[in-house]
Amino acid sequence: MDDQFTRAEAAAKSVLQRSPLRPEIGLVLGSGLGGFADSLADATRVSYADIPAFPRSTAIGHAGQMVVGKAGAVPVAVMQGRVHLYEGYSAQEVAFPMRVFGRMGIRAVVLTNAAGGINVNYQQGALVLISDHINLQGTNPLTGANDDRLGVRFPDMTHAYDKSYRELAREEASKLGMTLHEGIYAALLGPSYETPAEIRYLRTIGADLVGMSTALEVISARHMGIKVLAISCVTNMAAGILDQPLSHQEVMETGERVKTSFEALLRGVLPRIQGDS
Ligand code: HPA
Asked: Is 172 known to be catalytic?
């Protein structure tokens, strides 16, 4: 079996040979947020099933394709849907798309996700810049032998969520008259939502948001020196905050409701990141 570097290289080649574009920014669109990929110009769509070694998403609300196209003047590669640990994939498989982005020559990623709001200053539908994470998924995509071609054995995570990207995202949000919060994302395995006691625990340890993705992707991206901007959509308040059960339906509906402003923010941010990277 080929190593991860070689497989990522083959996957990157197979995507790039289908499009004349050379994407500079990689995006991952979370649950209910996939619509942005439909607005790209000169788009080439590649189903994950047609990319060698690429994991296929099974979650509802994840289309499972990579779209290479232009957001305004910015060539991007967009993952419409991601895979999660709770689907039974390994940490390495979950992070593999970041390896592919890296081998495509991409040096900046924008990761989006749906998250539960733990911070009571947030409301359903709020957009939150992730400033840091707490990885409670019990695994790490960098376990096993380190491949020095990808990155160092012990990558620094001090500035995992790029400060200047957050700054420019805040500037773009304010131009659009949008409120953009900032907070810490706790990544859990799922797929069950948290208990109210777990949410109280997460608040105590400093988490503002909770979700089931993103952290492993960020670890792999940083391992390769790829810069990261990550934005959560608070699709629901976390368990026990409101006296109502959580449902995937609610997560999808909120994603749908905020998508116009979320997409406007992405469109504003991408050229700024391109200029900054
Ligand atoms: N918990 C975990 N993951 C989530 C949530 C949540 O409340 N909402 C959306 N993804």
From this structure: no
